[in-house]
Automatic annotation (TrEMBL):
PANTHER family: TRANSCRIPTIONAL REGULATORY PROTEIN. SUPFAM superfamilies: Winged helix' DNA-binding domain. Residues 14-23 have a biased composition (Acidic residues). It holds the Pfam family HTH_20. Residues 1-23 are annotated as: Disordered. CDD domains: HTH_ARSR. This is ArsR/SmtB family transcription factor.
Length: 136
């Protein structure tokens, strides 16, 4: 019998600019709290490799789905991951597909001016692909 709902349809997360977080900013505590666990960092790293469901992430980081759920919730609340799609299990249950909310995470030590300088420098970079050089 054929399946009525799609499963594991490839999802491409949109490429986004790096997220710059300054140590003195008010929302930094949530980011560091979410990343205080090795498991949470492993999950986020896996999501930078490719989007995934909680059950896939549990397999990829070799932990329980309950543990992944806990850490994904913290990462989501800190604004580090987002739901990018929904897939269906073999039983027809909806499963959220997660990916990083932003591009690479850049943590800046220093005052607000240094954080803003870093943001400006990153904005000036052309991160869309390799650049050509004279003579190409």
């Amino acid at each position: 019998m054929s399946q009525l709902v799609p499963q594991d349809v490839p999802t491409d997360a949109e490429a986004t600019e790096p997220e710059v977080v300054g140590l003195e900013e008010t929302d930094t505590s949530a980011v560091f709290a979410a990343l205080s666990s090795n498991t949470a960092r492993s999950i986020l790293n896996e999501l930078y490799e490719s989007p995934g469901t909680q059950s896939e992430l549990a397999d990829r980081v070799e932990t329980s789905i309950q543990n992944v759920t806990y850490h994904v919730d913290k990462l989501h609340n800190a604004g580090l991951v987002t739901v990018v799609d929904q897939w269906y299990s073999e039983k027809g249950n909806e499963m959220d597909v997660y990916a990083p909310s932003n591009g690479p995470l850049v943590v800046v030590g220093g005052d607000a001016a240094q954080t803003e300088q870093t943001r400006t420098a990153i904005d000036l970079l052309d991160l869309s692909g390799p650049t050509s050089t004279v003579g190409d």
